[in-house]
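Design a sequence for this backbone.
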């Protein structure tokens, strides 16, 4: 898998390429997922849930991944503001700040980075359970059914791919009839559901301009690049930012890109307030 040059990409494609570079998650998979979820629209909103943005994160999923990985990508101000209750729910005490953090779901850079980190976490968990390399379709099953559901689905499919998927996931089947049942009403097998998702991902990647399969084996080359570790990787702004706003934002994000590890245990980071302002302005400008 070759990651497209970020310097040659802008907007959504540049954000996805950046996320791929920094996490090691395959570019074509991330592109295919975004196309399937939102049609590559950063302002996409679901009519039946809180799902919003390029990767259609619901509120709790977004707060959870930002809490876990935000600080790695200049969002430490957001991660520090998110608390987890005894019951496992993620909350933000300040309503205005909560709104700002949730608003970042519509920011291509923030959404792509968090989607890639979430996929990376699922990849590690699935590979530990399945004892084989994960594919892009495996990751999408985790997105669709949750990690626990994906483990159950993939383990059952390995044992008997012809088993009815609806019999194993009756609640999901009731909510997603067209996924689990054919047009004639007959139940689809686990293997058939899996292959339909694989085809959907590949079609999405191709529609988004990808040059490889999204459903196939993921890039085995390594762990990706930590933020700031590669001086040749830059955040490329969308075309929406103009004039003084664009110049100021470019300067601020340059601080984020210029941050370099000083040792294995220490990482020089930009001023948290500048990082916060940069991401908030990107969201406001539609970057």
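Sequence:
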């Amino acid at each position: 898998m070759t990651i497209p040059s970020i310097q040659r990409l802008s907007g959504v494609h540049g954000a996805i390429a950046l996320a791929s570079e920094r996490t090691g998650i395959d570019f074509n998979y991330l592109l295919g997922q975004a196309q399937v979820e939102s049609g590559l629209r950063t302002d996409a909103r679901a009519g039946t849930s809180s799902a919003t943005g390029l990767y259609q994160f619901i509120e709790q999923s977004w707060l959870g991944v930002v809490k876990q990985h935000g600080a790695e990508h200049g969002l430490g101000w957001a991660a520090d503001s998110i608390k987890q209750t005894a019951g496992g729910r993620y909350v933000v005490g300040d309503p205005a700040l909560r709104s700002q953090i949730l608003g970042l779901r519509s920011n291509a850079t923030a959404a792509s980075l968090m989607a890639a980190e979430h996929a990376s976490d699922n990849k590690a968990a699935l590979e530990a359970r399945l004892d084989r390399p994960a594919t892009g379709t495996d990751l999408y099953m985790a997105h669709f059914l949750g990690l626990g559901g994906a483990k159950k689905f993939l383990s059952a499919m390995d044992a008997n791919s012809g088993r009815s998927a609806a019999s194993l996931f009756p609640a999901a089947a009731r909510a997603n009839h067209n996924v689990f049942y054919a047009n004639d009403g007959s139940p689809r097998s686990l293997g058939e559901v899996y292959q339909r998702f694989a085809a959907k991902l590949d079609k999405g990647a191709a529609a988004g301009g990808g040059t490889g399969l999204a459903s196939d084996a993921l890039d085995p080359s390594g762990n990706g690049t930590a933020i700031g570790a590669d001086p040749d990787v830059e955040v490329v702004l969308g075309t929406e930012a103009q004039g003084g706003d664009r110049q100021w934002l470019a300067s601020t994000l340059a601080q984020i890109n210029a941050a370099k590890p000083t040792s294995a245990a220490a990482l020089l980071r930009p001023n948290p307030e500048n990082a916060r302002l940069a991401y908030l302005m990107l969201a406001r400008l539609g970057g």
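Residues 136-159 form the longest helix (24 residues).
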